[in-house]
From TrEMBL:
The keyword S-adenosyl-L-methionine does not apply. The lineage of its organism: Bacteria, Pseudomonadati, Bacteroidota, Cytophagia, Cytophagales. Residues 179-279, 282-392 form the PpiC domain. It comes from the Bacteria. Residues 1-29 form the signal peptide. Keywords: Isomerase, Rotamase, Signal. It is an enzyme of class 5 (isomerase). This is Peptidylprolyl isomerase. GO terms for molecular function: peptidyl-prolyl cis-trans isomerase activity.
């Protein structure tokens, strides 16, 4: 059937959450006895039954228990596939280097959380190359959706008058009750690696290079020595990539090689690489590498703490604002552009319920007065780097029912989300017939042409 599509902001948020669960979905799919099949086609994109069931289960776990929730999730999936299909038609392209960087960051986080690349492979019952491919596909889809949504509604803003009008439409007995919330900022400094550690890594990789030139197998040495959790277990092979998908230093070295040739040792933001070009196919190339990272066990934590302590003193003496210090000195890309303020995932507000704070943050800020800044504290970044940070308690709000004075930021975000959702809904109304959508008869009762 040809289906009419409209948009639901709630379901957009739900699908954005579910996109980051792709790996868990893949692992779950290995264990289910359900025979998988296609439940919807949207242009060149498909929705699998297992995908629908897994994301429905996620919605239920988050507390969405409407009798029509399965239809709501299917509608969300179909609508987002339509966005992806239109992105292809409109040539909406995301920066492949940003995708690659996020893939590397996400994989490093996964490996750090589970303990090792081998345990990650065991958990998901697939080799690291397939895990990387799954993560890349998920992240690229997510970034494409976000770019499409920005193009449709990114310029929309709300005025204070609109925020007030939105708040006044909420029935008084439906206003949410907020627990204690805090605004917390951080300035992070990654501990520096000395020249001795860098030289040791370079020399180790140079010795491996000599072994390869003497006749040993590149892939076997990659499995044995490479510290890239994504490609090391696969013999260092990265698969075919287009230009600008990998870091510039790596790409420049790889494209100078002939198939089978070995590069000199080169340095990038990830460490030191030894590269072998496998093949070229038009504008794409396949390569393998061995990555050696400088030893971080001997990073200078004391010097890093002293640097942060100097920054802290400037802030406490009113010589520098915390926001300016974060922008100028912090190594945390996620917060330095936000005045150093920490937010929850997929949340536009800086107010965080204390029961959702990371314990390592809670037990520090609980001892601070408003405006207080902690002493430098040891910290490990999401990608496993040793660092130090200082924490800043900007504000603390006691438990209360939602009101414009204390919760303007949250209410404004909700009003803006509603306005953007309306813009995207209007976009769907205009573009719903530009992509053919086919849904299996079993789900015709979902009436996907309705909100």
């Amino acid at each position: 059937m040809k289906t009419r599509i409209t948009f639901s902001s709630f379901l957009q948020s739900l699908f954005a959450f579910c996109l980051v669960c792709t790996l868990a979905f893949s692992a779950n799919a290995q264990q289910t006895t359900l025979i998988d099949n296609i439940v919807a086609k949207v242009g060149n994109h498909i929705v699998l039954r297992s995908e629908l069931e897994f994301q429905h289960a996620n919605a239920v776990r988050q507390g969405f228990t409407s009798p029509t929730i399965r239809c709501e999730v299917l509608r969300s999936l179909v609508q987002n596939k339509l966005l992806l299909a239109r992105a292809e038609m409109d040539s909406v392209i995301v920066d492949e280097s940003l995708v690659s960087a996020e893939v590397d960051r996400r994989l490093s986080t996964f490996v750090a959380q589970i303990g090792s690349p081998e345990r990650l492979e065991e958990y998901f019952n697939k080799p690291m190359g397939e895990i990387r491919s799954d993560v890349r596909r998920s992240i690229k889809e997510q970034m494409t959706l976000q770019k499409m949504e920005r193009e449709i509604s990114g310029e929309i803003k709300v005025t204070p008058k609109e925020v007030k009008r939105y708040f006044n439409t909420i029935p008084k007995d439906s206003l949410p009750y907020f627990s204690t919330e805090v605004e917390v900022g951080q300035i992070v400094k990654i501990a520096t690696i000395g020249a001795a550690q860098k030289n040791a890594a370079r020399e180790k990789l140079e010795a491996i290079r000599q072994r390869i030139l003497a006749g040993e197998d590149f892939s076997e040495l990659a499995i044995q020595f490479s510290q890239d959790p994504g490609s090391g277990p696969a013999g260092g092979e990265l698969g075919f990539h287009s230009k600008r998908e990998l870091v510039p230093e790596y790409e420049a070295a790889a494209l100078k090689l002939q198939p089978g040739e070995i590069s000199p040792v080169i340095e990038s933001m990830f460490g030191f690489h030894l590269i072998q070009l496998i093949a070229r196919r038009g504008e794409e190339y396949n390569s393998r590498h061995i990555l050696i990272k400088p030893e971080t066990a001997q990073v200078d934590m004391e010097a890093t703490a002293q640097q942060l302590d100097s920054i802290r003193t400037l802030i406490l003496n009113d010589s520098l604002s915390f926001a300016k210090a974060s922008k100028d000195f912090s190594d945390d890309m996620a917060t330095k552009g936000n005045g150093g303020m920490i937010t929850l995932p997929n949340s536009p507000t800086t107010y965080i319920p204390v029961d959702q704070l990371d314990p390592s943050i809670f037990f520090v800020v609980d001892t601070l007065d408003i405006g207080g800044i902690s002493k430098p504290l040891p910290y490990r970044t999401n990608d496993g780097k040793e660092a130090m940070r200082i924490l800043y308690l900007k504000s603390k709000t006691p438990p209360h029912q939602a009101n414009l004075k204390d919760d303007y930021q949250k209410i404004a975000a909700a009003a803006l989300n509603e306005k953007r959702s309306k813009a995207i809904s209007d976009w769907f109304e205009k573009n719903k017939d530009t992509v053919f959508v086919d849904v299996v008869p079993e789900f015709e009762a979902c009436r996907l042409d309705e909100n």
